[in-house]
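Sample pair:
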Amino acid sequence: MRKKLGLPLIGLGAVLLLVGITCLVYAPGVVKKTPLDVDTTTRLEGNAGKLNTETMELDENPVRAVSLTRTDSDVSDDDVVAWVQISCLMIDEGELPDCLDDSDPRLVSASTDVFATDRVTAEAVDGDGYLPDDAVPHAGLVNKWPFDAEKKDYEYWDGFVGEAVTAAYQGTEEIEGVETYVYEVEVIGAEIEVSEGVPGTYDTVKTMYVEPRTGSIINQTEDQQRTLADGTPALDLQLAFTSDQVSSNAEDAKSNISSLNLLLKWLPIIGLVGGVILAGLGVFFLFGSTKGDRKA
């Protein structure tokens, strides 16, 4: 009976060893890549002082912002993922859809961004076939950090400035049971178009709380000012992810970390250790039984 168990145990041990080696060697290059089927809605809230052109004073209002982000699978591939992102900032008054049309006075601003990123490094990619001809070239990180983010500064895309700026590492902070790395972007006095054809300057302090294993942004806060060329304040904006958004992001991060741990930690351990044990038992049963039979 023991001899009959030997070959099956050796076979099962070999299978477990193969699973362990595959998860250890090949799985990281497969799972640590940005998915090609992302379709997310990110919600922010805060306050904004918007210039009233009649009184030339800032009217204070609660605001909501919505960012609709999806991948374009038609032009994405194994190395690069293409994105379309629609962002709307609206005065929080009455029933609000995800975005308003230009005729609605509650609309503060709306924009559409098209970009592509490397699926491993998360850095912007500007290559033929991924973006339309009129797409604005991007640089640095855009909408997420890489897997296994480090405690260092990164270059981060700022669409108002039109170039990458430094996202400086600040430390760590726990958010709803998730450890995050904190990065801060600071821009002072950048010359921009405050609105179409209207020159001015732009200041912002943006803080991003990043879960390092997955590179996902758990929370984000921003304190932004736009000023006309003559010094008149045009917009004074404070925004942050809603509490529900932060909770949702934290739960998603925990789930994704568990999946990574299963594939990259536990399955290799189970496969390698279990495979060695079963294969060893199989050899013992097979050859040990043969030796015992001969003595008998």
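The beta strands are 39-52, 57-71, 80-91, 107-118, 154-158, 163-175, 178-195, 198-211, 216-228, 233-241.
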